Amino acid sequence: MRLWCPVLWCMWSQVVVAAECPSQLRMAYNASWRPYIEVTDEVVRGTDIDLIRQLLSQVNSRLQLQFVPEKRAMQMLQQGQVDMLFAASYTPQRAEFAWFSDAYRKEQNVVLMHRQTLSLYPELRQREAFMALAQRKLIGVYNPAGFYGDTFEQLKQQPAVKQRSLAVYEPDRRLDLVSGRRADYTIADNAAVQLDLAARKDGSQFEILPFFLNEADIHLMLSKVTVQQSCVLALNRQLTAREKTTPVAARSVLGSD
Residue 135: its pLDDT value, please? Predict the structure, then answer.
């Protein structure tokens, strides 16, 4: 009997690992956001998507992508209609209904302005000057579901700033509004917007201000309605193992800014 103990322990361990996460996890997506997700007619890929598929396979689960408009995704996660969201920033409010994995990359938020607008206010290249003028008069357009750090979050909740702000989910439309000078600035992920500008004919009209509005860890969010905390811990173990075994250069390819 003693000879069989290691075998039985191995079999039992595999059953426990398999039971930690559902056999498939439904994750919301809605559009391309390179380099993290790229949606084509044939396949959905991207640095975040490839990494998530790898992580789930290591916990005996499978990724099921579910198309969801961005404005509904958070509510559906809260209600358990989807199991997971990616590219999420931690907030205490979100943690009331969602588990957060360990960080799997960093996000750097930058501010974009039209060069002609910036020529009127060259001092905006300083972060403090930008925050002061954004509070007093600038018209901003940004993703209403986005989180750009506590400081900007407090600023955008001020009544006068709210009244001037434009809430737009689609990143191309946000850039269009700045390009047409119907908004003074927008906020974007640094890595993603570099690719967006390179693909636009008017990309040279924009300038990225030389500071990060916010720099934060990025996580997976998992619904507390449908996912057990043990599954999150299993995913965290895989993220920890990846940090130990993956060279820094390779980790950079998988989504760090």
Answer: 97
Q: Which two tokens stand for residue 250?
A: 């390779």
pLDDT of residue 247: 56
Residues in the chain: 257
Name the residue type at position 19. Answer: A
Give dist(CA 130, CA 111) in Å, integer.
Answer: 9
- Contact assessment for residue 107 and residue 189, using Cβ atoms and an 8 Å cutoff: yes
Q: What pLDDT shows up at residue 18?
A: 45
Nearest residue to 86 via CA among 189, 163, 174: 189
Whether the predicted pLDDT of 7 surpasses 50: no
What lies within 8 Å, CB to CB, of 66 at 6+ separation is 26, 27, 28, 29, 82
Burial (CB < 10 A; 0-12, 13-18, 19+), residue 134, is buried
pLDDT recorded at residue 41: 85
Q: What angle do CA 123, 128, 129 make, to 5 degrees?
A: 30
